[in-house]
C-alpha cells in the first residue's frame, strides 16, 4: 500500500544498515547525581526523609513470624511512624499539618522500600480512614476526629467494599436510614452480600470506621454517602450490633489485619454523617451543594483518588528496586566461557539478558516521569491550586490509567528480575519473591485494574463524541470520508495532538523516522484514535436502539476498549518521558536518556506489531527491521545499565538484597584467582582428549 496516505506510517527501507548510528562517539558516562535529583521529583526532601526512615530496621519487613505476630509488629511500627510525623504533611494547619498533598504522597510511596505491609497499614489509617474524614467531612469533624486518627489512638477502617459489589460502589447494599424520632442514622447490612469485606484494620485493630452506605431520608434514597461509625470498645470488643470476621492469612501483606464487618441496625448520631457534599438537618431535610446525584457520587468518590495515585508511585519504586538488584547481579554474575578459559561471560553481556532487563529500565523511567506529572496534578487539585471540574476529571483518568499500568508492570518486572537472577532470585533474602507476593493485590485494590481501564476507555469515548457535539453536516461528511480512508483524528483522549506527518519519498531519510519523536508519537497516537474511532462508529450505530442492544454492542467491544485504554496510558507515559528529557542539562546524560525513551516507544510498537501491520501503519519490511533496530539500541544502552539504575538512588540499606551488593563479584574474583594460580603453577589437570573420529561410524549408523 501507499506509505504517504496514512498518518503514523513509517516508510520502507531496504537495509537495516541504513539506520543511523546517532553519532560516532558514545557518551563516556551518565551524570547520575543530576539524573538522581530529577528522578526524585518535585518534593525531594520528603522522599529523602522517607528513605532515611526506611533504612531504619525498626520499620522494615519481618516475615519469619506467624501472621498474627506480623500484624502486631506492623501495628507497633505504625505507632513509631506516627511519632515521626509524616502523616501531617497532607493535613490542614488546623490540626497541625502543612497541607502539602504532593509531599505527603511522596513520603508515603517510599514506605514500600521498608515494608509494603507498613505502607498499606498507614495508607488505611491516614490515606483512607483519615482522608475520608478530611475530604468528606467539615471543620467540626476535622477537630473532633482527626487528632486521634493522626496519632493512632483511634485506629480505623475504611468500609466501602462489599462482598457482593466490589468495584461497583454505586450499587452497595448497606443502608443508612434517618430516624427522625431520635435524630440518628441506622446503619444496616440487610444481606450477607452487603457485608463490608477485605478491610484493613477490620479484623483486630480498628475501633471505628468510615462506612459507605445508601443514605435514605424520608423514604428517598439519596445515593452513597459516608458516616463515621464506632466499631469496638477500648478492650477491642465489638459494640452492640456490630459484627465481623477475620479474613485470615493472605497471599501477601500479612502485616495487615483484613476482615469483614456487618451491621445490625446500628444507631449513630445524625452529626456522624460526613456532610461536605450531602447533609441532613435537624428537621430531617436533605440538602446538597451538588444537585445531580450522579455528579455528587463521583465527586465524593473522586476525593479519595489519592489511593490510586500513591499505588502508582509505590509500584514504580518497586520496579526501581527490583531492577537495581537484578542489574547489579547481572553485572557481576558470570556464566559460561566464551573467549577465555578462565574468565566467564557476564550475564548482562548476553543479548537475551539485555532484552529481559533494559526495556524494563526504559519502562520504569517512563513510569517515573509519568508519576511525577500525576503527582503534580494531584497536588494542584488537593492543595486548592486548581480544583476545577476539568482538572479533577483529568486527575481521576490519569490516576486510573497509570495505576493500572504500573501495578501490572511491577508484577511483571519483579517476576522477570527473579527469573533473571536464577536460584539466587528465589531466595527470600533477595527480596523478589516476597515483594511480588505483597504487591500482587495492588492490581486489585483501590480499583481493579480492568475496571480502571474501562473507566479510561469511557472517558476516551466521551472526549471523542464531544468532537461532534455541535458538528454541522459538512463536518460530518468530511468525518465519514476521513474514516473511509482511515485518516481519522489525531487526538489522545485527554488532549488534542494534531500531527503533521508526511513522507519525503527518500528512503534514506525516512529511516530516521524510527528515532524521530514526532513519528513515534504519531504511531502511538494513531493506534489510540483509530481504535476509539472504530468502536465509536459501532456504538453510534445502535445509539437509538434498545438498552439491551446497546449493552450488547458495548460488551462486544469491551476487549477492544480496554486495549485502547492501555495504549492511551502508554502514549501518556511516552509523552511524560519525552517531557522529562527537557529537564536534563548534561548533554551525555540527555543523549543516553533519549535512546532510552526511543527504546520505550519502539518496544511498545513492537509489542503491538500485529496491529500496526494489519492496519497498514508499518510495512512488512519495516516490521522486520524494527526488531533488529531495537536489538542495536539495547546493545548501545548496555554500557549504561548500571548507571541508569544507580540513578534511582536506592542504598544497600533500602534494597536489602545480598545479590544487590558485592558478594557475587567477590565469589567470581575468588574463582578466577584460583584458576589463574592453578594455571601458573603448572599443576592444572589437562582436559581429556576428544576421541578420534571413527571413519566407519557413519556407515554403520545408516545400516543400523
Explain the overall architecture:
Belongs to the acyl-CoA oxidase family. GO terms for molecular function: acyl-CoA oxidase activity; FAD binding; fatty acid binding. Its main location: other. This is acyl-CoA oxidase. The chain has helices at residues 32-40, 44-54, 67-84, 101-110, 116-136, 139-150, 293-302, 306-332, 351-382, 389-420, 422-426, 432-439, 449-466, 473-484, 507-510, 517-540, 547-556, 558-581, 587-607, 609-614, 620-637, 641-646, 652-655, 663-681, 697-702; strands spanning 156-159, 175-179, 184-188, 196-199, 208-217, 220-230, 242-246, 259-263, 266-269, 279-280, 286-287, 334-337, 344-346. The chain is α+β, with helices and mostly antiparallel strands and 704 residues long. It folds into two domains: 39-303, Butyryl-CoA Dehydrogenase, subunit A, domain 2 (Beta Barrel), CATH 2.40.110.10; 307-489 and 513-648, Butyryl-CoA Dehydrogenase, subunit A, domain 3 (Up-down Bundle). The strands form four sheets. Strands 1, 2, 3, 5, 6 and 9 form a six-stranded mixed β-sheet that branches. The chain has a three-stranded antiparallel β-sheet with strand order 4-8-7, with no helix packed on it. The chain is globular and about 105 Å long. The two termini are 56 Å apart.
Amino acid at each position: 500500500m501507499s506509505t504517504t496516505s496514512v498518518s503514523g506510517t513509517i516508510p520502507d527501507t531496504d537495509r537495516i544498515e541504513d539506520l543511523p548510528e546517532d553519532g560516532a562517539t558514545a557518551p563516556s558516562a551518565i551524570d547520575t547525581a543530576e539524573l538522581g535529583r530529577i528522578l526524585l521529583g518535585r518534593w525531594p526532601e520528603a522522599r529523602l526523609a522517607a528513605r532515611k526512615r526506611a533504612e531504619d530496621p525498626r520499620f522494615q519487613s519481618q516475615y519469619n513470624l506467624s501472621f498474627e505476630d506480623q500484624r502486631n509488629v506492623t501495628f507497633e511500627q505504625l505507632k513509631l511512624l506516627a511519632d515521626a510525623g509524616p502523616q501531617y504533611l497532607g493535613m490542614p494547619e488546623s490540626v497541625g499539618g502543612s497541607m502539602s498533598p504532593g509531599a505527603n504522597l511522596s513520603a508515603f510511596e517510599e514506605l514500600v522500600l521498608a515494608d509494603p505491609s507498613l505502607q498499606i497499614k498507614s495508607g488505611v489509617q491516614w490515606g483512607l480512614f483519615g482522608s475520608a474524614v478530611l475530604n468528606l467531612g467539615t471543620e467540626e469533624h476535622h477537630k473532633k476526629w482527626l487528632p486521634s486518627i493522626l496519632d493512632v489512638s483511634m485506629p480505623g477502617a475504611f468500609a466501602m467494599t462489599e462482598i457482593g459489589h466490589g468495584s461497583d460502589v454505586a450499587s452497595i447494599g448497606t443502608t443508612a436510614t434517618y430516624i427522625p424520632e431520635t435524630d440518628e442514622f441506622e446503619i444496616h447490612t440487610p444481606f450477607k452480600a452487603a457485608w463490608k469485606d477485605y478491610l484493613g484494620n477490620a479484623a483486630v485493630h480498628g475501633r471505628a470506621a468510615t462506612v459507605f452506605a445508601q443514605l435514605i431520608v424520608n423514604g428517598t434514597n439519596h445515593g452513597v454517602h459516608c458516616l463515621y461509625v464506632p466499631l469496638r470498645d477500648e478492650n477491642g470488643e465489638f459494640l452492640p450490633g456490630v459484627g465481623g470476621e477475620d479474613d485470615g492469612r493472605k497471599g501477601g501483606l500479612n502485616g495487615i489485619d483484613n476482615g469483614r464487618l456487618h451491621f445490625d441496625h446500628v444507631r449513630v448520631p445524625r452529626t456522624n454523617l460526613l456532610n461536605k457534599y450531602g447533609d441532613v438537618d435537624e428537621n430531617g431535610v436533605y440538602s446538597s451543594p451538588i444537585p445531580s446525584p450522579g455528579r455528587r457520587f463521583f465527586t465524593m468518590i473522586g476525593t479519595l483518588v489519592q489511593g490510586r495515585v500513591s499505588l502508582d508511585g509505590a509500584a514504580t519504586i518497586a520496579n526501581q528496586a527490583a531492577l537495581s538488584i537484578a542489574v547489579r547481579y547481572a553485572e557481576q554474575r558470570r556464566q559460561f566461557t566464551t573467549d577465555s578459559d578462565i574468565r566467564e561471560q557476564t550475564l548482562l553481556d548476553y543479548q537475551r539478558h539485555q532484552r529481559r532487563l533494559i526495556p524494563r529500565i526504559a519502562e520504569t523511567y517512563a513510569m517515573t516521569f509519568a508519576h511525577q506529572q500525576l503527582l503534580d496534578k494531584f497536588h494542584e487539585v488537593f492543595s486548592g491550586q486548581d480544583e476545577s471540574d476539568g482538572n479533577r476529571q483529568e486527575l481521576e483518568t490519569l490516576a486510573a490509567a497509570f495505576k493500572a499500568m504500573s501495578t501490572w508492570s511491577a508484577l511483571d518486572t519483579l517476576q522477570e528480575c527473579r527469573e533473571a537472577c536464577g536460584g539466587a532470585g528465589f531466595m527470600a533474602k533477595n527480596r523478589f519473591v516476597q515483594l511480588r507476593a505483597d504487591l500482587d493485590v495492588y492490581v486489585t485494590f483501590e480499583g481493579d485494574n480492568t475496571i480502571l481501564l474501562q473507566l479510561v476507555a469511557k472517558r476516551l469515548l466521551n472526549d471523542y463524541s464531544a468532537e461532534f457535539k455541535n458538528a454541522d453536516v459538512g463536518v460530518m461528511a468530511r468525518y465519514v470520508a476521513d474514516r473511509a480512508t482511515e485518516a481519522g483524528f489525531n487526538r489522545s483522549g485527554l488532549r488534542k495532538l494534531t500531527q503533521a506527518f508526511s513522507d519525503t519519498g527518500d528512503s534514506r531519510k525516512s529511516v530516521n523516522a524510527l528515532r524521530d519523536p514526532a513519528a513515534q508519537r504519531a504511531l502511538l497516537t494513531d493506534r489510540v484514535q483509530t481504535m476509539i474511532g472504530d468502536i465509536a462508529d459501532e456504538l453510534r450505530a445502535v445509539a437509538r436502539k434498545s438498552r439491551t442492544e446497546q449493552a450488547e454492542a458495548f460488551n462486544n467491544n469491551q476487549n477492544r476498549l480496554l486495549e485502547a485504554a492501555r495504549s492511551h496510558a502508554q502514549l501518556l507515559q511516552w509523552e511524560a518521558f519525552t517531557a522529562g528529557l527537557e529537564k536534563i542539562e548534561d548533554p551525555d546524560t540527555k543523549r543516553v536518556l533519549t535512546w532510552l525513551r526511543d527504546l520505550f516507544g519502539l518496544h511498545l510498537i513492537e509489542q503491538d506489531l500485529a496491529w500496526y501491520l494489519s492496519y497498514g501503519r508499518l510495512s512488512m519490511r519495516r516490521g522486520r527491521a524494527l526488531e533488529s533496530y531495537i536489538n542495536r539500541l539495547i546493545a548501545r544502552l548496555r554500557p549504561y545499565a548500571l548507571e541508569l539504575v544507580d540513578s534511582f538512588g536506592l542504598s544497600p540499606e533500602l534494597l536489602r538484597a545480598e545479590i544487590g551488593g558485592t558478594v557475587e563479584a567477590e565469589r567470581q574474583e575468588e574463582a578466577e584467582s584460583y584458576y589463574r594460580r592453578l594455571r601458573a603453577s603448572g599443576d592444572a589437570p589437562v582436559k581429556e582428549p576428544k576421541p578420534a573420529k571413527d571413519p566407519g561410524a557413519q556407515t554403520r549408523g545408516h545400516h543400523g
